[in-house]
Amino acid sequence: KSANPQWREQFDFHYFSDRKDMLDIEVWRKDNKKHEELLGTCQVDITALPAKQTNCLELPLEKQPGSLLMLIAVAPCTGVSISDLCVCPLGDPSERQQISHRYCIKNSFRDMKDIGFLQVKVLKAVDLLAADFSGKSDPFCVLELGNDSLQTHTVYKNLNPEWNKVFTFPIKDIHDVLEVTVFDEDGDKPPDFLGKVAIPLLSV
């Protein structure tokens, strides 16, 4: 019930060199759970923004009234990685030793924001739902922790996909929940939901 909403939320997008350089933003209006209406879109050219500083942007919505006020910072990616099983961060003994030193009791108050990090190995899925007419699916896996999100590649035509990827997240809140969702890639259409698990960090 507002024409001037304030969200005040922060999202971290992990920008890798092989990704698109444009950040696409959509604003939606929700009447109820079933009806949604697109209020406008805008784009930000990430490559045009100065690095290592916070940029205050007022972005007019395309072909619609209104604008978005955003703070966008492009900074080096720390604590986040996607790798194969053979080169995962905790697999290197020297790196494991550095991590143990970094989070030992003696250093626990050195950086209060550095709670730690979570390493997740996504190996495979078994007996997934067949979402295509061919009796197969094109599954990929999305991992979400707080407002951080990373995903695997798609394994096509397979109900027992193997991804064998290692994901590393920085932890910002020890009460966060790791959500792992499997989707079926469906071309230009929104992906189909195949299943989900939720793992509270406090249970790890």
TrEMBL record:
Gene Ontology biological process terms in this record: regulation of neurotransmitter secretion
Gene name in the database record: Mctp2
GO terms for MF: calcium ion binding
Record SMART domains: C2
Residue ranges of domain C2 in the record: 1-59, 93-204
PROSITE patterns: C2
Intracellular or extracellular location(s): Membrane
Name of the protein described by the UniProt record: MCTP2 protein
Upper classification of the organism: Eukaryota, Metazoa, Chordata, Craniata, Vertebrata
Gene Ontology cellular component terms for the protein in this record: synaptic vesicle membrane
Similarity comment: family membership: Belongs to the MCTP family.
